[in-house]
Design goal:
18 helices, alpha+beta, binds flavin-adenine dinucleotide, about 40% helix
Length: about 550
């Protein structure tokens, strides 16, 4: 079982943040900040991390949810990026084999689109070679017939052949949370709903953050020797507190995904295909749904309110119906999400052409900012940042080198992926008598790893588990989230702890009232507060399902 990381201990954590001095303060609880906190804490630094909203509120819960080498970066000749993130895939899979799961990707090749057959074959060979992919997992080129057999939904016209290559899929918010919880096990002090509003500056150097607890309104300071700004799309805003917005700046692009029922788009496996405008789009099966993404358009709106527009959804529906035999319309879209890529601005380049490489920006006040990069490469980014922090501030201190490639993430006590499969089969056997299907076993193990046993134990203690197992399971997950995953509201639970708002929105609609009442009991909310939280959830869900111009 994981150590408690409970919202009920929030006051204690706040008091530690207020009173202690830290070697490092990390601003931002997305995958980048989480990775930095884990790396620094495991090397022996004292670390605080604060997140203004929920952990993974930003881009880290709104990606394509792939741990991938980025085939299209090969097209942009970004060999270094492909090598680094490509090699990291197997490492992150090893650190959390329940959560980072192998997924074969089909790349259909069509007349007049994509690269030619030979060029794709060579490209994928280089991709595998750069990433050090195991022999049995390397790309396989397919004939036209083999491609169409693999994916009968493909529109036949123009298909020349295809390729199958290895990637991994994950849940980005759960991966971020797993890194956050692991950092807590290594002594880092991490808290959500604490916003940095300014920096303390002494003799021209930043020596702390002025913060506000978003739940109580209390303001205080967190003192630290080094400060890292890992706020993704908000990096420039946080740099501005330090008057450090000189030189490089961000260019934000929006990426949208839509979710449709699996039976409306029953793809056999993940597919990566060309949209009519030449961009590449994924269609990825997940549980009872298939999700499709992404768009890539410049964005200058509110970073806290990013949702799909009607034009985004129509673009994706057109792209998918041109490639696959299906008749999807707006009514089929059950849910959606939209995220912002924090890319580094380059004069004259279009959104899609901007580099996805990470970039470290140092200010004369000592503030270190990091932006760009990939979910997949979080560990190497963290290593680079912490190396820099140590070189700048703690060179005289005896600290270990980075060893996060050996630190298993919370929920993983598996020796191999095979063990995950055996564990899942046993869990499935355990929950079958209550009417659960194999999707639920997959969901529980991918989300929680070995913590799933604890959740099923909680489920068995729920009084109504025999009469309404689906609700009882949700209540068990809720209790686990309160006790061990520091949720503060319904959105944290339904969006970032369970992913149900994206992948099973009907279940959210069915049980939101009961779950709101249970959470109100656990957190001692008044009826008024419960109703306000429910209205807030409803407002949020409607933004995932109703698409305005
Ligand atoms: P974020 O996740 O945005 O985290 C920054 C955090 O800082 C936020 O939670 C925010 O609330 C917090 N914050 C902001 N201001 C403050 C403040 N003042 N005080 C405290 N906290 C603050 N990568 C992959 O590897 N695979 C993919 O499949 C993939 N798909 C993608 C698809 C899309 C559409 C997009 C947009 C990106 C994708 N990426 C993918 C890239 C990847 O998701 C991002 O690189 C990564 O999530 C960025 O994480 P981050 O921690 O830097 O930023």
């Amino acid at each position: 079982m994981a150590d408690p990381f409970s919202v009920l201990d929030r006051k204690k954590v706040l008091s530690r943040l207020r009173s202690d001095h830290y070697d490092l303060l990390v601003v931002g609880g997305g995958i980048t900040g989480a990775g930095i906190a884990l790396d620094a804490a495991s090397r022996g630094l004292t670390v605080a991390l604060v997140e203004k909203s929920d952990f993974a509120f930003g881009t880290s819960s709104r990606s394509t949810k792939l741990i991938h080498g980025g085939l299209r970066y090969l097209k942009q000749l970004e060999f270094g990026l492909v090598k680094e993130v490509g090699s990291e895939r197997a490492v992150v899979h090893r650190l959390a084999p329940h959560l980072v799961v192998p997924e074969k990707m089909l790349l259909p090749l069509s007349e007049g689109k994509s690269l030619g057959y030979m060029l794709t074959s060579v490209g994928l060979m280089i991709y595998d070679w750069l990433a050090g992919v195991r022999k049995d997992d390397r790309r396989k080129m397919l004939t036209r017939l083999q491609t169409l057999r693999r994916e009968p939904l493909l529109r036949k016209q123009g298909i020349k052949g295809g390729a199958i290559y290895a990637e991994y899929r994950t849940d980005d918010a759960r991966l971020t949370l797993a890194v956050i919880k692991t950092a807590a096990h290594h002594g880092a002090v991490l808290l959500n709903y604490v916003r940095v509003t300014d920096f303390i500056n002494q003799n021209g150097q930043v020596t702390g953050g002025v913060v506000v607890d978003e739940l109580s309104g209390e303001q205080f300071a967190i003192k630290a020797t080094a400060i890292v700004n890992a706020t993704g799309p908000w990096v420039d805003e946080v740099r501005s507190f330090d008057n450090a917005n000189r030189g490089k700046r961000l260019h934000l692009t929006k990426g949208v995904h839509i979710v449709v029922p699996r039976e409306r788009l029953p793809v056999n496996q993940a597919i990566y295909f060309d949209a009519p405008d030449g961009r590449m789009i994924f269609a990825i099966p997940r549980g009872r749904t298939t999700y499709i993404g992404t768009t890539d358009t410049s964005y200058t709106g509110n970073r806290d309110e990013v949702f799909a527009s009607r034009a985004d959804v129509e673009y994706l529906l057109t792209a998918v119906t041109k490639t696959l035999q299906c008749s999807l319309s707006l009514h089929d879209v059950e849910s959606s999400w939209a995220g912002l890529r924090p890319l580094i601005y380059e004069e004259g380049k279009t959104a899609s052409a901007l580099s996805r490489k990470d970039e470290i920006i140092e200010s004369s006040t000592g503030l270190i900012s990091i932006a760009g990069g990939k979910l997949t490469g979080y560990r190497k980014m963290a290593e680079r940042v912490v190396d820099l922090v140590i070189r700048k501030f703690f060179v005289a201190r005896k600290l270990s080198d980075c060893f996060t490639d050996k630190i298993k993430l919370a929920g993983n006590e598996f020796a191999s992926f095979r063990e995950v499969q055996v564990y899942r089969a046993a869990l499935f056997k355990r929950i079958t008598p209550f009417g659960f299907d194999s999707f639920t076993a997959h969901y529980l193990v991918e989300n929680y790893g070995q913590q799933a046993d604890y959740i099923v134990n909680l489920f068995c203690r729920e009084p109504d588990h025999e009469y309404n197992p689906s609700l009882a399971l949700l209540k068990a997950e809720l209790l686990f989230s309160v006790q061990h995953e520091i949720i503060a509201n319904l959105e944290d639970f339904f969006v970032r702890r369970t992913g149900l708002a994206y992948f099973d929105i009907h279940r959210v609609q069915s049980f939101k009232n009961e779950i709101a009442s249970s959470l109100a009991d656990m957190l001692a909310w008044s009826d008024e507060k419960r109703d306000t939280e429910l209205r807030r959830l409803d407002g949020f869900l409607s933004r995932l399902t109703v698409f305005n111009e």
